[in-house]
Amino acid sequence: MTDEGAPIFERGDVVYGDDPFKGDEDARPWLILSNHKGRPFYGEQYIALTLTSKSWMDGLIDIPEESWLRGGTPDESRVVPWGVQSIGHEDIDFWQGRLADDFVDTATTALVDELR
Fold it and tell me: pTM of this prediction?
């Protein structure tokens, strides 16, 4: 996350914000996958994967403690690789943490595999 002015979230940041599948009153953590300066809507819109504390289905990606570089989640969490969403900056309530690049690469590869 940048520190100047309004924060711009970066690849690997975990943010907490609106869940478009549940309505305006519900929010959840999201893993930011893509946000680089060459992308349209840089700093305004983010490609993200949802996190869950549930282990309800095969294919979820456990987040090992050592993958958290800063911050974390209150409960043990997993990434839902098929739970991709484009979220707007205004829908993010706060920054929650940052995950290691190798973990983010694993989550991104899992998303791509879901699309094949």
Answer: 0.90
